[in-house]
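Go through this pair.

…
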Amino acid sequence: MAYVNSIFNTNFIEYASYVIKDRAIPHLDDGLKPVQRRILQSLFDVDDGKFNKVANVVGHCMQYHPHGDASIYGALVNLANKDLFIDKQGNFGNIFTGDPASAARYIECRLLPLAKTILYNPEITDFEETYDGRRKEPIVFPSKIPLILVLGAEGIAVGMSTKILPHNLVEVLKAERSFLMGEGYELYPDFPTGGLVDVTDYREGNGKILSRAKLDTKDPKKITVTELPYGTTTETLITSIEAAARKNKIKIGRINDFTTDTVEIEITLPRGVHTKDVLDGLYAFTDCEVSLSLNLLVIGPDSKPKVMTIPEVIEYHAGQLIKILKKELILEQGQLLDRLHARTLERIFIEERIYKAIEQMKSPETISLAIRDGFLPYMKEITRDITEEDIERLLKIPIRRISLYDINKMKKEVDEILARLKEIKHHLKHLKEYAIATLDELIKKQAPLMPRKTEIMDIQKVDIRDAAQKNLKIRYNKETGYIGSDVSSGVIHCEASVYDRILIVRKDCSYQVMDVPDKFFIGKGMLYCGLTDKETLENTVFSIVYRNTENGYPYVKRCKVTQFILNKVYDLLPENSQFVRFTTKTDVSIVVDFIQKSLIRTGLDTFPLENYLVKGVKAQGVRIKPKEFSSARFIKTSTLEKKEN
């Protein structure tokens, strides 16, 4: 058994680690999941400036990706629809309507220049073997910007999940620049579907946001949805509106969807209903308003999952930008020095006619030696040792190049190399300034192409209970003893919404709080039915006159119901009590008909209700008078005063 447990534990840990690192969670360095990284690497491999069929790209990517082609195709379409790295041709679906893309064999794609600018540099990229060992794939791309914030991500792994919202590319670049400049910045989400967003609880990428559709409400009889909340489509939005209408939560006439490359959902309202009557319901009961909880979880530089904040991501990538630019400068410097060395050898080889010295040589060794001897007088101009590769390259120069050799052209090229080397040397001494200049150039190019689409504003969240329409009529049929919204006949006691609760008091003075019932049996006799909202409970006082069965005296109890357990039955009367009268009115007096023991004195007596305190439901009643009585009733105090006058 221990052996089996060991196998299960080991395999589960390996599976969990694989799902977390190699499938669901993006890497901090380049903001990509493995399948996205492999797609981009495939596009780099086949890039020739022309469009490639998506089916071919998917097939090529399967050399890197150990899973099926369906996952590659889906990830490629999603990545292409972000309009950042991939140029599209054909039907890639519609992010507004949710319509799917055409089959992979019918659509084409290619890389956009931004992908090479930000990601591609094989010379400074670390590679590892693919799943079958036949090729090399990048561990991560050397990304110059925090793509994790630009692209956003969503994924569920074993025991953890990530949900990162997309941000505007230009705003992310400006935030990175501000950090390098030592300035403050604010960075908030920006969605491709536009809409409105409340970032009050954003908490640097780990809180929550409220996203709303943008509605045109100028027409009092028509509402037009022009932009969508994040994560919704016109199809899901319309479905949610129709579902709310079917449940009587909102009242609409009809819905027409005219969406193409822009969103246009037209909601026509029925007679007697106006825009202002429906707005709160749309936000409360449909996908016109969505709340999203966020978790900025990434695979960190140490290959372990880590929850980060936006400032931490910006700080890390600002440092990474400087490191990448330094590597690129050093790499370019080395390449230029190689070119300078090669051009210097070539110039001396041709100008000084060193090639003449090999005319009489008969072996490779003597040819190489003759060339080396020929360069000896000019070693001060050569910055490094002459290698066999250098000699081999010189020997491959065609006679045509020697005869057409242009000294001025060569000098111009050398001057350009020296000037660029001087620039590189300056940049290496001022890396931060160079990084800022790099970001400035990116911002200048992308600002016209990447405007903000989502408007930031304070959104007052609509309370569902407040927005719900009180369109359920609560009827009680005393003949059948049923109460509810589906009772067809009887007295209407109140109007409620589907989110309301009602309090009922039965004839035996027991009470119960319940959700609005469709049809519920309470017995033949009901004293009270009302809503349980705070205002109603606060203003409703139950006044009960009852007989103490032990002594026959009249008692009165006044109370409010403030606390309850849903569906639990409570008693308003204490033990040894017999119910006589009940009222919720306050401007009344109790008229008691006492049993007469003398022919001279009257048996009627009046007691104003206001003379008795309102107490809790568990309190005992107050004795009205220590005298037996035959009946009692409530009468308006004002009526008694008129009779007395």
In short: The chain has four domains: 2-164, 214-287, 312-446, 469-644. The longest helix spans residues 310-351. The mean pLDDT is 88.
